[in-house]
Amino acid sequence: DVQFSESFLFPNIPLDLLKNIPAGILIDSIKSDQSKCLLSIYFRPSSIKNGLNYSMIVSGIKDECGNVMKDQSLKFGFYLPVKSDLLINEVLFNPYPDGSDFVEIYNNRGHEVDLSGLCLATRDEKNVLIQVSPIAAVQRYLPADSYLALTKSREGIVRFYSLKGEETLLQMEKFPSLVDQSGCVVLLNQNKEILDEMIYDDKMHHPFITETEGISLERQSISSSSLRKDNWHSAAKSVGFATPGYKNSAIEKADSTDQWVRIDPVVFSPNGDGINDNLNIYINTVQPGWLLNITILNYAGMVIRKLANNFTTGTSDVITWNGLTADSQNVNPGIYVLQISIFERTGKIQAARFACVLTDHL
């Protein structure tokens, strides 16, 4: 299916619209639906090979005023995804008021996949699939190693969370209703076979989080099953409690002997000249969900600011100090001490102290 932004004139000989048709591709028929501004091209199944991508040119399309559209390259093909080709990677099931649920999927296949024909669904109390909802009515390709957040309301997402690009969020015509406390999400291919399934529960959130509204559950490892509860973790506060359409804050990291905290630059000048205006504190942990505390003291030991207070981390975070107190007052130039500690629910604690220098000019 080819979607247009306005009505178009359908020629007497529809095949004239298509150019550079690949050898061996047989077109069965071409139809138009003017009410939906939709052009449908039907191929003979035997001429389209599963897993191959093709392209041709749509040429000579005119609107009702006779204006001719520029030639457009049309990608097409047929691929039936199988289990683990596409994965459920993040789920927000208890949104803020005026917010919206979302389910993020990840393309684990290695090449782009057409999402038209795929569906999201849930299950009822008898484990029967319900609310089977098509993801895309027309062609929509998801590139390899990329993410896409699916939702019923784009506005309900962009109001509360950051996006990496408009193409990372797709508003579905119909979206399954997700129960706030517990439920499941099922991803299906064109034959309604299960590609991935995730069972969620509000208790899967970090135990130190008392209010889970607006916080998503993120998958930690693509190599571990979606059905493992320990493969899911609350999104970090440092990313705004959700990462719709991009890499998770709670993604699995290999063990590392790298220093867990560092600061840069040691000498900074928050004077707005664009040169080392901020002090950056880099926190790196193997596992997400540590609680971070950062206290800034002057050289006499007086607390100047609590920069982080039980701040839930991902696996890689950057906390910035702009040289202001908590009530947005400038501090005096001088030497300041940073007390930094992280701890997890098992009781493990790591702590460090750093000195930095705030100056007027560099």
Structure commentary:
The chain is mainly β and 362 residues long. It has one helix and 28 strands. Strands 16-15-10-9-19-20 form a six-stranded mixed beta sheet, with no helix packed on it. The longest helix is centred in the middle third of the chain and has 4 residues, at 155-158.
Question: Gist?
Answer:
This protein is an all-beta fold and about 350 residues long.
| Low confidence ranges | 253-257
Largest sheet: 6 strands, mixed
Structural class: mainly beta
Distance between the termini: 60 Å
Gyration radius (Cα, Å) is: 26 Å
Strand order of the largest sheet: 16-15-10-9-19-20
What is the overall number of helices? 1
Number of β-strand runs: 28
Molecular shape:
elongated
What do the pLDDT scores average to? Answer: 87
Features:
single chain; mainly beta; six-stranded mixed beta sheet; five-stranded mixed beta sheet; 1 helix
